[in-house]
Specification:
By secondary structure, the protein is mainly β. The chain is about 10% helix and about 55% strand. It has helices at about 1-20, 130-135, 275-280, and strands spanning about 45-55, 65-75, 80-90, 95-110, 110-125, 140, 150-160, 165-170, 180-185, 185-190, 195-200, 205, 210-220, 225-235, 240-245, 250-260, 265-275, 285-294. The strands form 2 sheets. The protein has a 14-stranded antiparallel β-barrel. The radius of gyration is 20 Å and the shape is globular.
Length: about 290
Amino acid sequence: MKCIKIILALLMLSSLNTFAQQDPNRAFYRYNMNLVNPAYAGAHDGSEIGVNFRTQWVSVQGAPETQSAFFSTQMKKNVGLGISVINDRTFVENQTAIAADFSYRLKLGTNSDLYLGIKAGATSYNVNTAGLVTFDIMSDPSLSGIDGGFIPTVGAGAYIKGESYFLALSIPNFLTTDRLEQNDGVAKLGQSRTHIYLAAGYDFNISENLVFKPSTILQYVEDAPLSLNFTAAFRIKDRIELGGMYRLDEGFGGLFLFNAADWVDLGYAYESAYDSPVQAASQGTHEVFIKLKL
């Protein structure tokens, strides 16, 4: 059992160095986009509030877990406001980000708008360095320099919305902060890196009761592999959405979204990784999504 713990810990630390410098992926990125793009705030009629729960590698101790909450509302004079809260825990790391969003709408044409947004907030980052001992991971003395206080964050984004399409580009945080990083099996003091998101989607009306909704989101982080997600979903009678997703060189899965009432959407997604020792020891990745229209 101890050997398995050590192997899993090393794999997760390795992912911190190559992948988890990136923010967590989300299956329902089309519907909670102001978590990473402030321009999305107020881009839809009325107000929206929602939560997103993602549990990766279920049954693996210390595997990544992310809980997110978001709010978006459309104000007068082309202004949109939003709030996002993200708590992300991985292995011995835990960080909580709270941010406010402001967006402004510019008309591009009869059926298209450009939203420009800014995000400002703070992030609390903590590392349980004592937990490294449990997995026999060496700790560099530099880790004692990690400050668990709140650190300011500043981001920006753009969101183009048409009658049947969207295109989005964002950087949720321009500022870098200290965080855990591994090098040659030793946990050391490193820095977070700037994330760039590019997303797009188009809705094809096949019939009165059936819409094909392909979309994609790319996540770029310096010195880390590209994270590229493709989603193909069908919207049936504007009540049920069923789809599949493929994350390049990482995994695949499916999602289900149910419009239980005109004011509430309920979603569930499952993902399975490719050729991963951690995935072989786990029960996949699960995600739950709830959004209320106020």
